[in-house]
Amino acid sequence: MGLIHETDFGTPGRDGAPVTLEIDGMAVTVPEGTSVMRAAMEAGVSVPRLCATDSLEAFGSCRLCLVEIEGRKGTPASCTTPVAPGMQVSTHTKRLADLRRGVMELYISDHPLDCLTCAANGDCELQDMAGAVGLREVRYGYEGANHFDAPKDESNPYFSFDPAKCILCSRCVRACDEVQGTFALTIDGRGFASAVSPGGDDFLDSECVSCGACVQACPTATLIEKSVIEKGQPERSVLTTCAYCGVGCSFKAEMQGNEVVRMVPDKDGGANEGHSCVKGRFAWGYAMHQDRVLNPMIRERITDPWRAVSWDEAIAYTADRFRTIQETYGRGAIGGITSSRCTNEEVYVVQKMIRAAFGNNNVDTCARVCHSPTGYGLKQTFGTSAGTQDFRSVAKSDVIMVIGANPTDGHPVFASRMKQRLRQGARLIVVDPRRIDLIDAPHVPQALHLPVRPGGNVALINAMAHVIVTEGLVDEAFVGERCEDDSFARWADFIAHERNAPEMLEEATGVPAALVRDAARLYGGGGNGAIYYGLGVTEHSQGSTMVMGLANLAMATGNIGHEGVGVNPLRGQNNVQGACDMGSFPHELPGYRHISDAAARGLFEKVWGIQLEREPGLRIPNMLNAALDGSFRAIFVQGEDIAQSDPNTKHVTAALKAMDCVVVQDLFLNETAAFAHVFLPGTSFLEKDGTFTNAERRINRVRPVMPSTTGLDEWEVACRLATALGYPMSYPNASAIMDEIAGVTPTFAGVSFELLDRLGSVQWPCNDAAPEGTPVMHLDRFVRGKGHFVVTEFVPTPERATRMFPLILTTGRILSQYNVGAQTRRTDNVIWHAEDILEIHPHDAEERGISDGDRVMIASRMGTTALHAIVTDRMPQGVVYTTFHHPVSGTNVITTEFSDWATNCPEYKVTAVQVTRTNLQENAEAAE
Predict the structure, then answer these.
(1) pLDDT tens column, 279-313
(2) 197, containing H or E segment
(3) What does the pLDDT look like over 121-170, one tens digit per residue?
(4) Which of 118, 536, 719, 920 has an alpha carbon 20 to 30 Å from 396's alpha carbon atom?
(5) In b/e form, how buried is each residue of 689-720, taking b as 16+ CB within 10 angstroms?
């Protein structure tokens, strides 16, 4: 396959009534509002251009796209001229050709003529347009003033900025504004002195977030990837899906042979539509990092050195250890964990291996520690364990409520969509202890910020619902038609009680009652209201209660079942949704069918040819506890680092040490691998063949851009291990696994690789009723029939601030890093975030004698760690914040054992701590 070339229509498409015009003698019909340039392109007529591209609004600066229109004077720019009925346009006349050549001469007269050695040679629009207009000579000499000596800016690790080659088309500036919404770039100066400026001394010191939109928009080599400068132009493209966050961006991996040259966001990607962030666009180098382990390894004891072995020996060794343990301690003495970073096909095969070959339901997933309350809460209220909208839906929102999420850092491509809508006038409500960047985003109307006290989420949502119910903001028609009468009556009676009034709950929420009332009135009466939430909702002892509280609020106001509304979890990892869909919980088979359901179990028993255990198995916390009491002896860990990511690290590592056989399958020797007896090398997303399912239920193809570096796909490893344990399992390819998934999972019934290759992606449910997927859920009825309201009593978390531990620690992510950092720490992203930092309010810092940059000790009743501090008023008094991307930080050494009452999702967001200055330089040194 060669390079995938996307058609650029010059200006964005429009929706409107059809308009017919004539271009170069051809009749063309396009929607009202379409530019003449785009109309020409849709008719197959290419109009020369430099400043125009269809990802940006028309600018009309290059004067190259001039056309003639009968009855009009002059030669208007086709990019800024809308079509009109009966318009007659000429795009190629001698007059236009002379004008265009003259314009091109002016550009070329101040442009280095180093095409043969330029990195963009063969991929340069200026070069293409010079050919398109027939430029053969330049009448202007080179003895005059020019910009050839303008210094390059090489400060960004991923791209170069060479102002000598800039043609001042403003595409980079407009991309930063219109696509990304950061407004980091500007045109500085006037006339001949005009130049693109990043605002600071250089790109690295500016507000640029390295999303790559400016690089993508640049028509010359002014902004270009350093990988292209180093390696040259790519030869072929493979369409695949990013393996970072739950947005699920589509990319073209552009290759030379089997080497990646660059990742280019796919214009037709359903989730990202041509946009990207720094991680997906640039931070893919970890896949070829020297730290990757490419051969299986085993050792008898965790104190022994690793020994590289063949796949056959590693699988035989593992099967023998597992078999011996089960013979000695029972069938339930082993289990496994699936990974939200692996494909649906890989996850499905691993959970099948555990149920069919291990013979138990001891399967859990890292989704347990992030979004398991989402699955529980939304299934109880709506009937399905997933978000309700597609990402495009936010363009129809009038009020956007962001709760416990930081989209600009955690889900930046979706955040750009959200910022576009906010700049158009949608109102914003942010519920978060910390003042996140979205609140102060440029050109966004004033946001309502509700700085909720950690642990006070349910009290806050109850207080908002109280206002909705008592002030007549309930959508009575929607509730009467779409929801259960009895459950609504019980909930309304509960929520209307005086104890749920904002004034009564002010101490629990930490938010002034008047502000809560303002937010409730805005959400309940401001038009289409959409809720987007993250781990700040789920990672609490009342995470499931809070999710149900959000669902209650949406149903009561009618904000469900059409575009612009909904309850939308922003999933953390790339395949959290898919891992849950594939049956990774001990009580649920694929498709969220309970293991005790005889009919569902019978279907799988028939397809798998084995009798399944009918009782739920152990969750991760249960496995760890059972390991310490001696009844659980071995674990298979697929693509997860529980020694770093799970709470109460001392408890986790003690449990791992107590096991007889720990098997880790991953790219790198992570913290969990320190306690492993078998290491099975995994494959990066660049080697995988399968699918990921993103936060909007979008199933995207993941295609291998290079051969596996380990010799086996991850699903093949699971198949071989299952077979060695006595359960024959094999598939000819990943497509066959998806066919089996479709055969046993109603929401995936219509999904196949052929369908995905044809449509690009689909959102489940995808079946006979919805053969091309379901962008918006619950349109006419809820999946469960009628919406179910749940009484959400506020129960304070057992974790409280005390005299010994007077501050509350909460955690989150940062833009440049990802999860436990195993991937991003092995890229140049460490330039932006080389260590985890503790954010602390000035008052709390002053009380403790802490200044910016001081090393501080954070102590909880579980343990201690040390970080550098930043003093900032984005934190409320009494609350401190850090990220968890670096293992040396040991953030989870201090988090507690408390978890959600329904799902055991850990309460990462509420840990009582004390912070003091320390002379300790590094945690690693302290450990020594």
Answers:
(1) 999 999 999 999 999 999 999 999 999 999 999 99
(2) strand 195-197
(3) 989 999 999 999 998 888 877 677 888 888 999 999 999 999 999 999 99
(4) 536
(5) bbbbbbbbbbbbbbbbbbebbbebbbbbbbbb
